[in-house]
Amino acid sequence: MTILVTGATGTVGRRIVAQLAARGTPVRALTRNPAKAAVPDGVEVACGDLTEPGTLAPALEGVTGLHLITFGGDDQAPLENGRELVELAAKAGVRRVSVLSGWDETSVEEALRAGDLGWTQLRCVEFMANAFDWAKSVRRDGVVRVFGNHPGAVVHEADIAAVAVAALVEDGHAGESYLLTGPEALTPEQRVRLLGAAIGRELRFEELSEEEYRASMRAAGVDDDLIEFGVRLGAEPPPAAAVVLPTVERVTGRPGRTFAAWAAEHAAAFRN
Ligand SMILES: NC(=O)c1ccc[n+]([C@@H]2O[C@H](COP(=O)([O-])OP(=O)(O)OC[C@H]3O[C@@H](n4cnc5c(N)ncnc54)[C@H](OP(=O)(O)O)[C@@H]3O)[C@@H](O)[C@H]2O)c1
What we know:
Elements: E1 2-5, H1 13-22, E2 27-31, E3 44-47, H2 57-60, E4 63-68, E5 71-72, E6 77-78, H3 82-92, E7 96-100, H4 107-114, E8 118-124, H5 135-141, E9 143-146, H6 157-169, E10 177-180, H7 188-199, E11 204-207, H8 210-219, H9 224-235, H10 247-252, H11 259-265
Parallel strand pairs: 1-2, 1-4, 2-3, 4-7, 7-8, 8-10, 9-11
Antiparallel strand pairs: 5-6
Helix pairs in contact: 1-6, 3-4, 7-11, 8-9
Bound molecules: NADP nicotinamide-adenine-dinucleotide phosphate.
NADP nicotinamide-adenine-dinucleotide phosphate binds at residues 6-13, 30-33, 37, 49-51, 69-73, 100, 102, 124, 126-127, 130.
């Protein structure tokens, strides 16, 4: 049994690879650039591009479990070839699939729903890792500037990965759509305080107006669609964003990791 992880060098996929390797499950990491991919000892690396299914045959050889992302390319464009990807997986002998969905479903979820592979959908509102966006201004000025200060039950990437691992190695998760949250709903300001405590520096929190936010994003070269998305999220996050759910603990048997733990783990990225 080999599990192929796509997005294996990314925020969540990297954790899935590490957790599977740690439990001794044969795991193969898909990347477009094997020379740059750093994976734990014993993990196979396979070269392939999800937008070019013709490149995936060697990666899928002997694979019974598959973790899928739903975008391809550095602009994170939604995959449009879900049907082809799912057909290739089924032909290769894949029996269990976990899918990390984005905000909107893509051709990947559509194809899985229409097919007969056992698959588990993972959905999240906000990753704890988004706090990396604050690293530069924290290191430089000890300040975090955000638009919107609503509570969010941000989820640790390692917990998303742990749920994916459960879905890939255990029975009983096929057909489930898991909305994953962290163990507490925290405003950005509360997260900034916890981050300050973790790095031993008092941090300033500044709330931007919508106009200031737009201007700062434009200055950073962020494209218009992403700015509009940020404005919508900052002004009026979906109600689900602040609701703490027991899913991580129910599926993994351990409570979700806290933001304080995330901050301690990544403190070095926020220090000069
Ligand atoms: N951030 C949040 O708060 C949040 C909330 C909800 C949902 N999500 C969703 O979570 C997902 C992950 O987001 P992320 O920002 O953390 O991304 P990420 O995992 O850091 O994305 C990069 C990964 O995608 C791989 N990749 C990109 N294009 C590829 C292609 N054409 N073929 C094969 N692999 C490809 C990269 O592999 P190589 O470069 O090694 O080839 C890399 O491993 C997205 O669907 C996002 O919508 C995020």
